[in-house]
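Task: sequence in, structure out. Protein: IclR family transcriptional regulator.
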Amino acid sequence: MEKERESAAEDRAGGIQVIARTAKILNALGDTPDGMSLAEIAKAVDLPRSTVQRIVSALSQENIIQADRSDGVRLGPALLRLVARVHTDVVSIVTPYLEQLSREVDETVTLARINGRGLAFVHVVVAEHILRVMPPVGGDLPMHSTSGGRALLAMHSDSEVKALLGQHYKRLTDRTVHSITELLAIVEETRKRGYAWESDETVHGVSSLAFAIDTILGRYAVSIVLPTARAAEKRARVAECALRTKEALAAEIGRASNPIEPGDSPR
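Result:
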């Protein structure tokens, strides 16, 4: 009987270890949307390549990941379908807050997430102003020039920002930030004040203020988008309402652990 109990305990411990290792591999792949080799995964998760190969093979059979000789290993369709369902749930939870925020500031409010090196809109609440901004759902914009992108970048360390964006700093207007040094300074300022701001850097005549929420359901950016003609007089009010909504959403959905704090990011 004692041996049976010991055997059962060993089986449980082994199962927990496999789950933990699998989670590490999935997290590593989630941080590298372009794919990783087995050697890169093994180094990232500090596991033997043979162990990584066994887990990758099992996950691949379930379509949780995709393993391709040319593109490497990346997240698969089965997992992405689950992620899509989570995003749908997030939209249903967040929408009432976005609608309230839009009414308070009388401007368009968007919900977005990182998509590769871009910012993808997943929901938009359009203001009723005659002069208003209407970003397209599903449309991608650059991370470096948008307030939503900067708010999400502020949740990463500076080294992660560099790895995520590489040298992709296309100038969309004459005001667009176009150097990593300038961008990292903006990201650090975003961490300090709790929101990001941009004016005429993505589209002439359009400004935006955004905050990011780092929750148990993922990381999202909420942006208030408005014509630059109204931006200066409304910025303080918009920032106040945005930060209040940020706290309300964190309380509603829950906070993720280990956020990047101002000054914590290694350069």
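Strands lie at 65-68, 72-75, 108-115, 118-125, 140-142, 196-199, 206-215, 218-227.
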